[in-house]
Amino acid sequence: MHYQDIQDLLDQITSEILNEHSNKIVDLIHAKDLSEKQKLTQLLDYLYIHRKFLFILFKMNQFEEQLFLFLKQLIETRRENTKKNLPDDYVAVDIKTASLVGIIMWWIRNGLHFSSDYIANQIYLMYKG
To answer: Where's the Transcriptional regulator TetR C-terminal Firmicutes type domain (predicted)?
Structure first.
């Protein structure tokens, strides 16, 4: 492969990681044999494995924007697929997405001593209660 310059290399690496991340989320959205908590745990495992690359992307602010869009898509799809009618005053998708992004960003930056399963359980409890 040939790159025009360092920025071109970074852009291509970033694009590759974000595409991989996008594919993982799409796979999780459509996984029928996993519970919501298992899907979240697998997503967090994926983020943990790629944390070194994510640190670089955090600094470039591209990852946080993409993560927001991907999680928003996940939440919207989940709401569309739910069999329950949600109340009119249910938490807005953007608010819920922002809180999840904040938790994940904190976990990657400062909270990696917590397992992905622990964080998934905490998120599950937060939205359940």
So the answer is: 38-127
